[in-house]
Design goal:
Blueprint (H helix, E strand, L loop, with lengths): L3 E8 L3 E7 L4 E8 L2 E8 L4 E7 L4 E7 L2 E3 L1 E5 L15 E2 L4 E4 L3 E5 L6 E6 L4 E2 L3 E9 L11 E8 L19 E7 L3 E5 L4 E3 L11 E9 L4 E6 L2 E7 L2 H5 L5 E10 L4 E12 L1
Length: 277
Amino acid sequence: MPATYKIAGMLSENARILVLDQSDWSTASNTNETAGSYEITDLEDSTYYVSAIKSDGTSDSYADVSPHATPAVYYDQFLGTTLDTSKWQTPYVAEGCNVTVDDAAEMNLVSGHAHNGVHLQTKTEWARSGTMTIACETYMGNWTWYSVGDVYGFTLLDSSYKTNRGSPYQNPASSANYVMYGVQAGYQPRIFTSGTSQNVLSNAGGLRGSWQQFILEINLTSGDYTVSHGSLGPASGSLGSSAMNNLGSGNIVVELSIRGYDRTGTHMYRNLEILTS
C-alpha cells in the first residue's frame, strides 16, 4: 500500500487538463475539469507536463511539475463482534489464549500455560521504504507484569513470518527480522530489535486500566522515530539503518500482540490507522 500522488490546481474557467509523464511522455491523465479547484489523482512519483486547454483553443502549460504524495491509509475500528478477516491473518495464539472482538480487538491470556501469547498480523504488506505512522488507541490491562518477557505492543515484521513463527510466546522465529515497540517489565516502554533495545518514554504503569492514544512514526530506511503513548512523550530517537536493514528487502506486515509468562490478562486495541508516505 504505497503512497499515491496527485496534482491540484485552480481554474478560472472550464478546461481540459492534459497530464504527460515526462519520463516517457506518455499520457498520465486527460480529463475535462470545471472552473474552480481540481485534483488529478492516482499518479506516480514522477515529473509531469501539465496543460490546461481552454474552449477557445488557448492553453496554459507547465513543465517539471512534481506531484504531492497522498498517504495511503489502512484502518480498522474493530467495530462489532467479528474480526475482519479481509484485513487480518488468522490469529497466532498459545493454547488457551484467544482474540475476541467487542468494538475492540481483545487479546486474552490465560494462566496455566508457561508460554502465553497472542499475535494478530495484517494481511496487507508494505514495501520497506518511506515513513510509516501507526496510530491506535490501546488499553493496557491492570495486572502486574513481572518478567522482561511480559510485553505488548506493535511489531514491524518481515512478511515471510505471517505463516512462519516461533513459539507464540516469542518474538519472530528469526529474531533479526523484527522491529518492535513494547511495554515490558516495570512498565518500561522500549523500541527494540534482536540487537538493539532503547528505553523510550517514562514508566507506563499509570496508563493501565484506561484507553490511551498511541502514535509511532518511523522511517523505514533510517530507523529515525518519534513515539508518544497517552500522556507520555513525544520522544524521538533512531534505531539506525542497519537495524532496519535486518527487516530485509521484501515487504513487511504490522503485528499487534501481547505475551506473558503464565499470566491471565487482557489487552485491547481499537481505532487503528497505518499511514505510509
